[in-house]
Specification:
Elements (H helix, E strand, L loop, with lengths): L3 H14 L11 H12 L2 H5 L3 E10 L12 E8 L3 E7 L3 E8 L2 E8 L2 E10 L2 H15 L11 E10 L2 E11 L2 E7 L6 E6 L4 E5 L2 E3 L2 E3 L2 E9 L5 E15 L22 E2 L21
Parallel strand pairs: 6-16
Antiparallel strand pairs: 1-2, 1-15, 2-3, 3-4, 4-5, 5-6, 7-8, 8-9, 9-10, 10-11, 11-14, 12-13, 14-15
Length: 290
């Protein structure tokens, strides 16, 4: 009577002899992450990153019959370890700044012609702060060690992006905050990111900085509802012309601002003002990134 192990060996040998293609074992989350980090520039270089600074142009797809042309804005984005983030979007009339400083976050809208005039100052709520913290981690830690912040990664198997094979990982930060990332199974290149809210983030082109690979363009699709309560989709395109790493930014960049003496009083509310929604990473990764 043959032992089970003997039968398995015979079947395996027969498969080789007959030229039968045996299925490759599924890659683990750690193996996929290792490939993704190698593609971005390598473990040592990525682990040494303390800050990332993106500068470029933001083009929202917000055309309407009354205003057929999208309103462009310059955008300046800073991520600094461990949990600091600052995004400044400057349009024709307004400057909108959103910042995270550890466990506090705020958003301020100013008049371009008079920066002392604050249209609104918003203190963000705990759920918004949690999302900003997750977004900051995604842009600085490059897929690795999410367990250290209480999250975990799940390998969800094979998928396809635009007809190309992919492997899918879910980066679960906490309840309601998940980044679904699709990677090329051979190279580790990030192909697409989706959020639990149904939005997607894609990257195009690349900018090399100190041997690290960042996206030159990030395209975010946001799903929601319009003013009439109907489902709507909005697209944001960020094109970067400059990216730097490991600058040191002062605490004042992220701290809650105080009005200058004699400046007009500000309004304060408990939810974001107009809301410049950026990728979960913006750039995710490159070392980017949302």
């Amino acid at each position: 009577m043959m032992h089970t192990t003997t039968v398995k060996r015979i079947l395996l040998l027969s498969g080789v002899a007959l030229g039968i293609a045996l299925p490759a074992p599924a890659q683990t989350a750690d193996e996929i992450i290792a490939k993704a980090r190698a593609y971005l520039g390598g473990d040592a270089a990525l682990s040494a990153v303390t800050s990332v600074h993106f500068s470029g142009v933001l083009v929202p797809d917000n055309a309407t019959p009354a205003a057929p042309k999208p309103v462009n804005a310059t955008v300046d984005i800073i991520f600094q370890k461990p949990y600091q983030q600052r995004i400044v979007a400057t349009g024709a009339d307004l400057v909108e700044t959103t910042a995270l400083d550890g466990y506090s976050a705020w958003q301020r809208t100013q008049d371009v012609r008079d920066l002392d005039h604050w249209k609104q100052l918003t203190v963000l709520n705990p759920d918004q702060i949690k999302r900003l913290r997750a977004n900051t981690w995604e842009n600085l830690f490059f897929f690795k060690d999410i367990e250290q912040r209480g999250g975990h990664v799940e390998a969800l198997g094979s998928a396809a992006v635009d007809g190309h094979p992919a492997v899918m990982l879910a980066f679960l930060h906490e309840a309601g905050i998940v980044f679904y990332r699709y990677f090329n199974p051979e190279t580790g290149k990030l192909l697409m990111t989706e959020t639990e809210q149904g939005g997607s983030i894609r990257e195009e082109g690349e900018i090399m900085v100190n041997g690290l690979r960042f996206p030159q363009k990030v395209i975010q699709t946001v799903k929601g509802v319009d003013a009439k309560g109907q489902r709507a989709e909005r697209k944001l395109v960020m094109t970067f012309d400059k990216i730097t790493v490991n600058e040191t930014f002062p605490a004042s960049y992220f701290e809650m601002p105080l009005p200058r003496p004699g400046a007009p009083k500000t309004a304060s509310v408990s939810s974001p003002a107009s809301g410049v929604t950026l990728p979960n990473p913006p750039p995710t990764p490159g070392p980017a990134a949302k």
